[in-house]
Amino acid sequence: MLGTSGCGNAIVKARLEHAANLHGSIRGPVRRCALQMFRSRHWETIPTDTRYICKQAIKQMNNIGLEVLATYEIEFRLFKLKDGQPAWQPCSTATPSCSAKSSRSSPIWSVAVAQRGLHVEVMFAAQRVRRSGLIHDEASFLDRRATGWHLNLSLWTSGNRLNNIFHAADSSSKQLSTTATDCGQLANGELLPTAAHALGRQPKCDYGVDNRMTTFRLQTQRKETSRVESRIVSSACNPYLALWRRLSCRIWMESSAISGLTR
């Protein structure tokens, strides 16, 4: 899995240099799969970052008569004061904050995908299968995992209605459980799809307007700007989760089909 919600600087690209090392019968499926995924014949990047998703959500809101005056997102990092007490420190969202710092922070599945002819840049999160099911091993786009917190400030109109455009309509737990159902684990630790995908069921990744949120009020001079949304960093608004599931599924299914024919 790539990044987590708020990971706005992640870029997904396709590269062919790894494909040269593949068996000749596999190169075709890899290229066809990538072309289908990226919807481009020139290996262009696709806009899967959070800012793009927010723009699409704002467009949807405008289509139903809502007007977003302004939105702002702040990231916080947890640190300790001199007396040992924890505190939250704001940090900039403009700097690249989710790039892999070492090979250990690279997801297991990303290595397998790269070997099949695709490469994903700017990644820092992993999903692994354990006895308790599919859980986050590292799921923070900040320097240290599990220390991120978001404040999404939204100014809104149309009947004093607050809409969360930074959060996916599907909950994080639902997406993770669905992924765990659709994927199994091989001996080498690689996540592969099970019969659920073979039956044609596509993974759901719905990005739209979501009103489910936790809010609290701050005292301000203007009544219409006195509500601030609070949420913990999660993978609910994560386009890379669905991207990975579709990608690994299609590559594996085509590779398996060819392997069966060449045996």
From TrEMBL:
Residues 47-250 form the GS catalytic domain. GO terms for cellular component: cytoplasm; membrane. It comes from the Eukaryota. One of its GO terms (biological process) is nitrogen utilization. GO terms for molecular function: glutamine synthetase activity. SUPFAM superfamilies: Glutamine synthetase/guanido kinase. Dodecamer. Interacts with BFSP2 and VIM. May act as a component of the cytoskeleton or as a chaperone for the reorganization of intermediate filament proteins during terminal differentiation in the lens. Does not seem to have enzymatic activity. Belongs to the glutamine synthetase family. PANTHER family: GLUTAMINE SYNTHETASE, LENGSIN. This is Lengsin.
